[in-house]
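C-alpha cells please, single chain.
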Amino acid sequence: MITESTKQSIPGGTTEHNALCSETMSEVERVHPGADMERFVREQMAFVGLGADDIALIRRTAPLVLKHEAALTSALYEHFLKFPATAQFFLGPDGAPDRERIERRKHSLGRWLKETAEVAINEGFVYYLLGVALSHSHREYGPGGKIPPQFMVGAMSLTQSALAGVFQAELSDAREALEAATAWNKILLVQLNVLLLGYMLPPSSGGH
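Here you go.
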C-alpha cells in the first residue's frame, strides 16, 4: 500500500497531477519506444522526477565531473578487468588486456559523459543513446560476443557510486553534494532505460 508519507517521497506525489501524469505515459499497445525515442526519454524523465532544477544542477556541476573524466573512465575499465565475466570483452588473442581497444572504449565513454552532462534531450542525442544500446545488445564483433544486460546495469551502478564520490570530494556542503548526486542519478537511470531497450529488440536479420 502507498501511504501518504510514501507519496510525499515521490516527486509530485502529493499533487493531483504529479510527475507521473505530467506527460501521459505511452499505452502498452504503442509501437516500440525506439520508434519515438524523444517521447520515450521525456516520459522517463517525468517518471523519475527529473525536472528543470535537476537539469540546471547537472549542467552546473558538469565541470566537476568532466575534470575527473580520465580517472573515472580508467577506474571503470580496470574494474571490468578484475572479473573474468567482463574482462573477456577486452582481451586480445593472447589473452592479455587489449590496451588499444580499451583506450578506444575509454574515449567513447568520455564522449558519453560529456553528452550526458549537457542534458540535451533532442532527436540526435536520444538516437545516439539507442545506437550505444544496440552496439552492446547486438554486438557482432570483438571478443566475448554480446554484452549481457546485467553488466549494463552494474556499470551504471558503478558510475553512480563514482560520481557520488566526486561530489563528496568536490563540494564542501554535504547537502549540495547529495542534491548533485541525486540529480545525476536520475539522468543516469533514464539513460539506463534507453540502454536496456536494445535487449527488447529482435536479433539482427543476419542471424548472429
